[in-house]
């Protein structure tokens, strides 16, 4: 366990250790993580996830989309007990795992089975302050799924790799169409983790209505339609 773990998790460190132990014991056999990930659980997964709390306002309502093994949602919930956190995951076996972890660690976290784009999930989640996603989908698709869950002014935090800026340039039009503002890149955990976490931040703005996206037809001098 890295020395920075105590600083990142604070009073939640014992729960972080228990979560790491659960992942180490069951993660590979249940298809949650690859065999090579066991030796780098703290740096690559727990700390990498928890440090995005730097971008999350105090007391925010947060939804983690495609939570999978519970990343980044579970470490974020452990590090930031002030957050109201919901995990959304479509696969039954992963929902079972997430529910077990939440119960085992006695976390005040809700688990919902479904996809973010489903109407029933959107209705149950409501409008939240922050949506997180890690290794779920390209930015264009992610924006279409996540931005509708946000209140106006809320933020999507997408954990990305080295190609984040290329992805932003490629998917800018799709992000805007989904109701997002200009995407920005932030590095979280600088000085705390060996490789800072790259996060693409997109604010939910008021989407352009269909009427605003169409040119008005110029009817001055237009020829009348023939009868019949």
Quick tags:
228 residues; alpha/beta; Rossmann fold; 8 helices; 20% strand; globular; disordered C terminus; SAM-dependent_MTases_sf
Structure notes:
By secondary structure, the chain is of the alpha/beta class. The chain has a single domain (5-206), classed as Vaccinia Virus protein VP39 (Rossmann fold), CATH 3.40.50. Helix content is 35%, strand content 20%. It contains 8 helices and 7 strands; from the N terminus they run αααβαβαβαβαβαββ. The chain has a 7-stranded mixed β-sheet with strand order 3-2-1-4-5-7-6, sandwiched between helices. Helix 7 packs across helix 8. The protein starts with a helix and ends in a 25-residue tail after the last strand.
CATH superfamily: Vaccinia Virus protein VP39
What name does CATH use for the topology? Rossmann fold
Number of domains: 1
Principal-axes shape call: globular
Spans of at least 5 consecutive residues with low confidence: 208-228
The SSE order reads: HHHEHEHEHEHEHEE
SS summary, helix count = 8
Radius of gyration: 21 Å
Beta fraction: 15-25%
Distance between the termini: 82 Å
Into which percent range does the helicity of residues fall? 25-40%
Strand order of the largest sheet: 3-2-1-4-5-7-6
Report the CATH C-level class: Alpha Beta
Q: Report the CATH architecture.
A: 3-Layer(aba) Sandwich
Secondary structural class? alpha/beta
Ordered list of secondary-structure elements with their pairings:
Elements: H1 5-9, H2 13-26, H3 41-50, E1 61-65, H4 73-79, E2 84-89, H5 92-105, E3 109-113, H6 119-125, E4 128-134, H7 139-146, E5 150-160, H8 164-177, E6 184-188, E7 197-203
Helix pairs in contact: 2-4, 3-4, 7-8
């Amino acid at each position: 366990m890295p020395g920075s773990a105590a600083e990142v998790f604070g009073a939640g460190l014992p729960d972080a250790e228990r979560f790491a132990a659960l992942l180490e014991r069951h993660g590979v056999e249940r298809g949650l993580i690859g065999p090579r990930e066991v030796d780098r659980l703290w740096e690559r997964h727990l700390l990498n996830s928890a440090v995005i709390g730097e971008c999350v306002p105090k007391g925010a309502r947060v939804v983690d989309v495609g939570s999978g093994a519970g990343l980044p949602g579970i470490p974020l919930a452990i590090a930031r007990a002030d957050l109201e956190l919901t995990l959304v995951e479509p696969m039954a076996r992963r929902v079972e795992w997430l529910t077990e972890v939440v119960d085992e660690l006695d976390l005040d976290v809700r688990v919902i089975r479904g996809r973010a784009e489903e109407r029933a999930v959107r209705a149950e989640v409501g409008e939240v302050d922050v949506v997180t996603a890690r290794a779920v989908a390209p930015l264009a698709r992610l924006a279409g799924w996540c931005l509708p869950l946000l209140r106006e002014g809320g933020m999507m935090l997408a954990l990305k790799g080295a190609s984040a800026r290329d992805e932003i340039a490629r998917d800018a039009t799709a992000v805007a169409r989904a109701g997002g503002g200009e995407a920005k890149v932030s590095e979280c955990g600088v000085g705390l983790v060996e490789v800072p976490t790259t996060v693409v931040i997109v604010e939910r703005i008021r989407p352009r209505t269909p009427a605003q996206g169409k040119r008005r037809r110029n009817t001055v001098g237009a020829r009348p339609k023939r009868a019949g």
